[in-house]
UniProtKB/TrEMBL annotation:
Keywords: Lyase, Protein biosynthesis. Transmembrane segments: none annotated. The keyword Transferase does not apply. It holds the Pfam family tRNA_edit. This is Cys-tRNA(Pro)/Cys-tRNA(Cys) deacylase. GO terms for biological process: translation.
Length: 158
């Protein structure tokens, strides 16, 4: 895999946040990129998180949930003080984050969007999330992810 650097890994390096980058051979036929990552890395899927972009009251918001769960849109809206939420259009998510769907990282996005991380993340010493490319994951402490993103912790996984 040529050039492992992404805006997410660059941000972590710049901020001197302890992390590890894990690469694996991504299969474009995989039905779930998140479950594929967990299996390829030999990690329990509840420790691997996916980044989803939703629209809350017309504004884009990022939800980070375990790959085994779904994003509870009602809970996400409540976590950011909103009323109504729906999944964002893929093109809007890609435009705002600068990443391709299936490889959206919560870190290093083009536009700084509000982020809500499922509170289950705090149950692990480290968690995995996308490094900004399919087949590339970052392992870091959940507390560091929350701090870097100024994220809200809430029960948003359904």
């Amino acid at each position: 895999m040529a050039g492992k650097g992404t805006p997410a890994t660059a941000l972590l390096a710049k901020r001197e946040v302890a992390h590890e980058v894990h690469a694996y051979d991504h299969d474009p036929r995989a039905e779930s990129f998140g479950l594929e990552a967990a299996e390829a890395l030999g990690q329990p899927p509840e420790r691997v998180f996916k980044t989803l972009v939703a629209e809350v009251d017309g504004k884009l918001v990022v939800g980070v949930v375990p790959v085994t769960g779904q994003l509870d849109l009602k809970a996400l809206a409540a976590a950011v003080g909103g009323k109504k939420a729906k999944m964002a259009e893929v093109a809007a998510a890609e435009r705002a984050t600068g990443y391709v769907a299936g490889g959206i990282s919560p870190l290093g996005q083009k536009k700084r969007l509000p982020v809500v991380i499922d509170s289950s993340a705090t149950g692990f010493d480290t968690i995995y999330c996308s490094a900004g490319r399919r087949g590339l994951e970052i392992e870091l402490a959940a507390a560091d992810l929350v701090r870097l993103l100024d994220a809200v912790l809430a029960d948003i996984a359904g």
